[in-house]
């Protein structure tokens, strides 16, 4: 063969390894402007075969560009919104007393859904929402911090559960995730990754938000993509609720400027209204006095509103008030004052978040894209939270560790409630009331107080019954197939070569037409399970276990056998919307059939083994970035190490040694800190004097301090703590030394039980978010000398 011909044939063959994937082509084939849709059975699509010609000389060859992948013609933008910890009776759209005009607007332009459900807990709902599979199928039977080594509970969205982000991105969408990410395992949150379980690894090209279940809104543990950012250092009045909307608007403008015809998928999930409740002062002032009538009167008002709006049936009965929560008219004047304040700040947080969501929607409108955008707005990822204890708290990390804060102490923070010096949560009684007309709250999967969410969606020209109400029974797993039907995209069979689990949700698009109000529900069966509380819905009936203990007891009470020790209830939802009339005693055969159906569904969706433990799961062994390590050595300055990657000081003895070089004139600044204003510790020099401060969740501070400033030169500063276990939260003895000489010593009666911080980090040589003691210093508290080495040694846990 002629050499020129042979080389040309060889060169051409190098560009023909894969079959063409194009389905619908636009533009001249092979031109730089050509586009195509793909069938999407395998994602990402294989590159198409080279369609040009290659000879030895470029002037004798024909170039050819692979077409750009685009979504099917007419595929809409998608704005998927979900707030946090808000039950059915919260928003004005569903009868609540808190104005939510943005949600009202979406409902007026589209539909309200009155039987839409979550899983009863945050990260499980989120995993189900973005995968279209049940939360156990997606590995999130519980939150990541309580994961166990079973497929339904390992808190890993595996590669066989491709997300809606991955699907839409590979079909040509611009994908973004703004707000809360509670779907990354704690051991993978550091800069070392791996990032397959971060938003970027789940199909989202852009991420602006925080990691974990909650965040301080004033100084959040905030990321842009993989990098920590600190916007409040330049903006002293920064609040994430507004900052997130600002960033979303900026992102939408940039995408529109660069590629105005490229559709976007934005997953917008603010931390509001999860504790800590952090609205701005201006929003709090709007609600002054609005809750002075109390929680019982508010329930009656909400139910009346719901019936007037038609979002509950006219015969809906208000479920009984629980015996273990006080009625409003039995409270003292101080109690009423403090409890009303709690609700004012929560309501402000709800309204503030809705307003900022409205700014994002308004940006879509300004770009002329509202008619081409499917908006889905879910109020709450579960029912309203009961994690504030029966009386509320100024410091929510204390509350979730079962440390109560008397009302008399809360009143000291009355004026500061919600500002940067507090991390407040409200009384369970408000949470129960905001779930009107149902029983129970967040964490309880057996009853609609934990799982019924107000949801509205709009898409002009496609959802044609403007302002309509739909009562078909649906679940968060139904959102993904709804989006897929709207976009004309099918669920892939493989993603990155891995066979996919079937999508377990059903599309809700059949409800969109004017004549669809009375169409039977496409979802006929749905199970629910969380912490052993469980339910099964089937064709208008629901069987529910009776919660053996209230969620605000944090799992500390004695629980029955999870399989055989639970009582069951039975409700006919076609006649009893609120789960008021228990028919278990009258319909034993029906109940037995439903119980058997639950077991069938549980086996199908990785719900087994059942587990009703709370604390033991939180402290159980799991993959860890620090497992087996007893010594941690750092040098120089380090900022932002996640708590899960840092030395653990809980329920154990530990020693922190800082080898420092103090400059002439004395040294100042942080040597090592974990946490901050709302819990943690700090070892630092203050005007040259060594200090160790232990902050017990904002409730109490213990301080060791030397009386003499360190001279210039090298020194060894040591804090040694001896824990007096066994058990969590016990006390111990701390000794602060300099160059081998003790300078301060004291014993403390208790320590933090289970959780130091969720939204601060471990820092060396600097403090980046909030101080462990505001009276000593302000951040950033950078060490002015040289930190040659910091060593932390930890003993075995004493539990």
Key words describing this protein structure:
799 residues; alpha+beta; eleven-stranded mixed sheet; six-stranded antiparallel sheet; 15 helices; 33 strands; metal-binding; Sulfatase_CS; Arylsulfatase; Sulfatase_N
Total count of strands: 33
Number of helical segments with 4 or more residues: 15
| Silhouette | globular
- Share of residues in strands: 15-25%
**What is the CATH architecture term of one domain?**
Sandwich
How far apart lie the N and C ends?
79 Å
Structural class: alpha+beta
Largest sheet: 11 strands, mixed
The value of Rg in angstroms is: 28 Å
CATH topology name of one domain, in short, is Jelly Rolls
Helix content: 10-25%
Mean residue pLDDT: 95
Low-confidence stretches: 3-22
CATH class of one domain: Mainly Beta
Descriptive notes:
By secondary structure, this protein is of the alpha+beta class. Among the domains are: 3-56, no CATH class; 149-271, no CATH class; 286-430, no CATH class; 631-794, Jelly Rolls. The chain contains 15 helices and 33 strands. Strands 5, 6, 7, 8, 9, 10, 11, 12, 13, 14 and 15 form an eleven-stranded mixed β-sheet that branches. Helix 5 packs parallel to helix 8.
Entry summary:
With 799 residues, the protein is α+β, with helices and mostly antiparallel strands. Among the domains are: 3-56, no CATH class; 149-271, no CATH class; 286-430, no CATH class; 631-794, Jelly Rolls (Sandwich). Residues 1-22 form the signal peptide.
How is the topology of this model organized?
Elements: H1 3-13, E1 22-26, E2 35-38, E3 42-43, E4 68-69, E5 77-82, H2 101-109, E6 111-117, H3 122-131, H4 164-170, E7 174-181, E8 206-211, E9 222-224, E10 227-229, H5 240-258, E11 264-269, H6 281-285, H7 295-309, H8 333-366, E12 373-379, H9 396-399, H10 407-410, H11 428-433, H12 448-451, E13 452-458, E14 468-470, E15 474-475, H13 479-487, E16 494-495, E17 498-499, E18 525-530, E19 533-538, E20 541-545, E21 568-572, H14 588-604, H15 615-618, E22 631-634, E23 638-641, E24 654-662, E25 669-676, E26 679-686, E27 689-696, E28 700-705, E29 713-723, E30 732-738, E31 741-748, E32 762-764, E33 786-794
Parallel strand pairs: 2-4, 3-16, 5-11, 5-12, 6-14, 6-15, 7-8, 7-11
Antiparallel strand pairs: 1-2, 6-13, 8-9, 9-10, 12-13, 16-17, 18-19, 19-20, 20-21, 22-33, 23-32, 24-29, 24-33, 25-26, 25-32, 26-27, 27-28, 29-30, 30-31
